[in-house]
Specification:
This protein is an all-alpha fold. Helix content is 67%, strand content 0%. The chain is elongated.
Length: 67
């Protein structure tokens, strides 16, 4: 029996990312920012891309909160 293109190419048969997993990741990232010292109301008002941008450089976040 012949294989189809999707069966031959493993990169085309990968599972898609689920919405629930994305929500869990964003929630964990927001908790991480709060643990760094950012105000919880500020974090709640931010969008997910801004949260990820701040988490790229955690030392800068803590330094900006101190001074």
């Amino acid at each position: 029996m012949a294989k189809t293109t999707l069966e031959r190419n493993p990169s085309r048969s990968r599972p898609t990312k689920s919405a629930g997993a994305r929500t869990q990741r964003v929630k964990a990232q927001r908790r991480r920012l709060v643990a760094l010292g950012v105000d919880e109301a500020t974090v709640a008002a931010m969008d997910s891309s801004a949260v990820r941008a701040m988490l790229k450089y955690p030392k800068k976040v803590t330094a900006s909160l101190k001074g």
